[in-house]
């Protein structure tokens, strides 16, 4: 982890050397940069050795010293940037003020420079001493820096792989279905004679190796093949060694002697020998723990597709790699269900496999924390088997699980397996992963929020042609593919949120505390880790003093913090980059806020704050300002001075869209000049006028735009401005009143990357340019009052996933044609007063999950629901009694396959079940939505 901190610092130093060279002239930053770069390769080896030899105090001490000196350099750089910003703000003003400032502030700047230079000189001496100590005590074995065969875990790693293959059958539950699937695919050689690759993918600890072992050793499998081999592939490997071992294993399986000269052969020679050997044989080969496609590319060349039914099973944690072999061949290993998980836990924790009643609540919570991860269940169950069977003892273990994971040797196997995934992460992703642990347990984290936080902290590396936010989105996909994060997939959210597995979060907390990276206070402790750089507090606020002055991030969750206590906190945190006060009960902001010159992210969402200070313009580095749900009605003029601002969120809900009222959101009024903020990517919202619709075209970096109070005469100028926003992903246009016509026909060349389109207001016709937007995934038409059926045009959108029609059509019938809307997952039809009939033709909407039919009082016929085989929820509200009667009566057969079938009874003010199979709660958000998008962060 220390190499991640150093790598992150070097990235910052290189950026400053390129972009801010004039500021650091004379401070000799480059000398420290060179010294640190020379240490980075040794740090990587040291981190690997730390994994192999957990008790090597010398290595751990040295690595800790490097980490601390890295943090010191970062602190000095940030303090210097803080003072530069402070002096720059003091120098701003008129000609006279600037002249006086140059005279008065020059000595102050020289004084700061001398102080910073002195601190850097001291740090340079410390770095030199650390380097000398490294050489003096030979902390790393000679030549270890070039050891290309280091597997990141040595004998310990190999031991863990062997353990997974030796688990007795009595300790295995919940794999029967997966085992049968693999056995069937392996032994269908007569039907499928081609070589078939079967990847088994999942996060570390799910039991991939254990499952494949049981399949590999099954008598039906062994008897089906002429030869077999099992090869374990480490994170670092030598191709010739892998192929050599493969040859040996194959010969061993057939009791043949190993060919002479194998030990001296190069990669090409061994590959040719393997091809010759396997050419006429039906073989099965297991490649265990493959980390990337490169290893497979090397090995697959030696595995001929000989038409004899060869099979290859691969275990991997990398979902993108597994997916490359085709959907039908991939086995994604899931987590154990609650019952299987509890049975497995009890089999390890209790000699009689039965849980005593007084321990059952603790056992259930421990199992719940494991979230169906077999390795965690077995390991923690084994730990509890050695504990006294008392409530006090079990409650102590439960309360200290993150500490146990980091320090208890009985959990070492679990930690090391999970650490393999963590250590394989690039240093940027390590920071991003650990940062996720700041969110409360079981928290569903909105991707957009996480992205903005990562960008604010500087964790994201630049890539040519992409914004930092787009790179961060790739980071999330990478972490999900590696099993380090999970999509919080539900019927109402389409990969918009992620979560951490509880055990991985405990691992992250353990690493974060050990490395002084982050600290999570859940109200159970009164003291803080004074060295932690990223802090979150849940439910209560503990004392924070000047000793925490190097804090970079402060996130509060459900705390009762007051404005007075916030003042005391902010006065100590001059280097803060992130201040997230969401849901805090504060009513006002202390003056100290505008002294946080390094602040990049400020969230006042759902607070009681009524106004922002006019001097907010002093926060020159601010990137994100989120005041959604607060009581702020006007953005101060100072906002237009925030030249680095990337995201502004201002709306708050005052009515549900389902009330039928045209205006259901209120927005803070933006000041004149806001269109000069050229870095803006998100603008929610801005009121239109004759000047705004022209000037908004200056915001060419916009990705999300909501513009309200649009009048018909604004149309031409607005369309001209929208044509300049080539990167726009979301467009929400709201007319000034319900009867006002949105004149947007002139948008002849709409932004080609547009993904979400929301139109609030009357349309004379559906704009022709909509059908050209092949990337559209979400469309919402509200109060459009179209005379022509919009589906005839919308059905041409190949990637449409969400469609909302609210008072959008005045006709009597809607028909979803055969082989159209094939990607649609969510459909809402609301407030179509004249609508009498909806028809779904066969082979339409084959992916639909959610169907909402609201406030259509004349809707009497819904035909073709039997074809919507993927539908999970049908939610009705204010439809005709005739339709409800048909669903309950003669047409029940067409609806009975839908798992959740609900009707809102307005008389009773409650939901009623129309389906006996209904077995879950009403999905949150089913009765409240915003313009075709769920309420996001």
TrEMBL record:
Domain Disease resistance R13L4/SHOC-2-like LRR span(s) in chain numbering: 550-880
Biological process per Gene Ontology, one example term: defense response to other organism
InterPro entries in the cross-refs: Apaf_helical (IPR042197), Disease_R_plants (IPR044974), LRR_dom_sf (IPR032675), LRR_R13L4/SHOC2-like (IPR055414), NB-ARC (IPR002182), P-loop_NTPase (IPR027417), RX-like_CC (IPR038005), Rx_N (IPR041118)
Domain Disease resistance N-terminal, first and last residues per copy: 5-88
Occurrences of domain Disease resistance protein winged helix (ranges): 438-508
NB-ARC domain residues: 176-354
PANTHER family on file: DISEASE RESISTANCE PROTEIN RP (PTHR23155), OS09G0270700 PROTEIN (PTHR23155:SF1232)
Name assigned to this protein: Disease resistance protein RPM1-like protein
Lineage: Eukaryota, Viridiplantae, Streptophyta, Embryophyta, Tracheophyta
